[in-house]
Design a protein that fits this description.
The chain is an alpha/beta fold and 336 residues long. The chain is built from ten helices and 15 strands. The protein binds nicotinamide-adenine-dinucleotide and 1,2,3,4,5,6-hexahydroxy-cyclohexane (INS).
Length: 336
Amino acid sequence: MKELQVGLIGCGAIGRDHAQRIQNKLQRAKIVAVTDVIKESAQKVAQLCGCKVAETAEDIIADPKIDAVVVTAWDPAHKELVLECIKHKKFVFCEKPLATEAKGAKEIIKAEMEGGQRLVQVGFMRRYDKGYRQMKELIDAGEIGAPLLVHSAHRNVASGQGVTEDFMITQTCIHEIDLTKWLIQDDYDSVRCIVGRTSKEAPEGLRDPQMVMIRTKSGICIDIEVFLNARFGYDIQCQVVGENGTVNLPDPSYPPIRKEAFKGTSLCMDWSVRFIEAYDVELQEWIDNTLEGITSGPNSWDGYIAALTADLLIQSRDEGGTEIKLNTPERPVFYA
Ligand SMILES: NC(=O)c1ccc[n+]([C@@H]2O[C@H](COP(=O)([O-])OP(=O)(O)OC[C@H]3O[C@@H](n4cnc5c(N)ncnc54)[C@H](O)[C@@H]3O)[C@@H](O)[C@H]2O)c1
Ligand SMILES: O[C@H]1[C@H](O)[C@@H](O)[C@H](O)[C@@H](O)[C@H]1O
């Protein structure tokens, strides 16, 4: 059976995880080369995977022996790397966001459509999480009636170095922007983002938390708390309220502990543990499809719509929380 020869660009936290996951855990794929603008980072991952270090990203993308590319570089590099993959007709799995602004994502769509073949999958891995999938099944089966409201929270322990207020939307909230639309199958109609009291735990210049509010075309109201310095744990919550009931995202299950007048369960401290199974399912599916020469899952259009929504949320926040209409363009048949 053929084995997919994969090159990986960006050897930071998730690049290292994905490279090892592909090399040691998943089936039918092999990491053959990695690269990073920081040479030592690439060398470390190459050592872990027993593969070569490529000098540049272009060397990976243009290598005829490499079938497909994983982009795990930092957000602002995604657009150019994906465009380069499309130019070379290479299948590419690009971590979210597809681009930091809608206009970058639009360039990708144009290039992909002109090339006549869908090549891109975006790393919106929440769609592969068991808990979200169970919620969707119940909603689709009509178990809670028509959805009316969605309440979500995206809490990180601490904002990383260099995180900006815009990243809070384009890098963090982007998960909920994509996931919620997929969960309730409705396009967005208007968006708002407001900021109130900032936590004293937040670094200077970062207004944290931020509140996102979205209304869908059918009138479902969505609120999303984005809180990067929540300190207590990596906490992802989602509740959909329907006409006949509610459904909640299950917390990961850990054995309950009773000790020293305390009863409870542990919390994850970061995304790599919280969504470990979702990453495995997502990437195995990408490998299997790519070997068949097809794409499925979140595509460039989904990346574009998410980026468009993020652009307007940032605009709303910067205007003091105005409600902004989102004229969602119609999905081309190419991305159906
Ligand atoms: N789906 C998820 O849950 C999830 C989780 C974490 C990160 N991410 C995404 O994955 C990407 C990487 O995140 P991270 O946490 O690993 O960040 P990181 O900062 O730890 O790693 C990014 C790496 O990319 C390298 N890099 C930057 N530009 C590059 C370029 N042009 N060519 C080659 N290498 C380049 C950096 O040197 C760094 O080593 C980000 O886009 C992030 O949004 C997604
Ligand atoms: O890149 C990461 C990742 O996407 C996590 O899932 C999210 O919780 C973080 O806020 C973000 O910085």
